[in-house]
Amino acid sequence: MNLEKVIAVRTDKTVYRDGDLAIKVFDENYSKSDILNEALNQARVEETGLNIPKVLEVTKVDGKWAIVSEYIEGKTLARLMEENPNKKDEYLNLFVDLQLKMHEKKAPLLNKLKDKMNRKISETSLDATARYELHMRLDGMPKHTKLCHGDYNPSNIIIKEDGTAYILDWSHATQGNASADAARTYLLFWIAGDITTADKYLDLFCKKSDTAKQYVQQWLPIVAASQLVKGKPKEREFLMHWANVVDYE
After folding, report:
1. What is the mean pLDDT of residues 209-217?
2. 5 forms bridges with which residues in the sheet?
């Protein structure tokens, strides 16, 4: 495999292109079980029929674990929004429509979103009272089994030249409540400093899915707390604020 062309650099991983292949190479300290789980998630989501890159191989490159997938030629939705600001609302509509199409799918062998969030809340540095309130709030939320992405943002959508959209990066995929997935996307826009788009996104999601905005907002402290464990240092203060922002019932 030729690892000369870097197409993305993330914390603890680098993605290369070699012809029709995308090769995600993980650092030596990355958990093997997390890497294998990511490949398994992607394979299970493939079975739903959504447009996603197919997993071709899990291998080692120079002693490092790597996931080899199809390379999808195109531009990210984030880049298209940047290049065509006058079409941003149109792209945001497409973004929400793709998310709702994803939420229609089922992948019954994926981990359950509620289980993952309970585990993450327990691992936070929040005090015992805050953790208890968050666990209780999460426990009271309806149990759903919709396919959830867990990191759904415009940089994870590729649009091919013919207009076909593909959803990338299924490392955080679970089955659970679509409104939790929407709350995560809302927070991602906030973290990026694009509060106007965050609000537009939430309005669109709620309108198109016929979901009460208050219901999505109930998920915000839970999602923020569950993100604290792996949140980047500069995001921690922001996430701590959201984890504590709502008066608990």
Report:
1. 96
2. 17
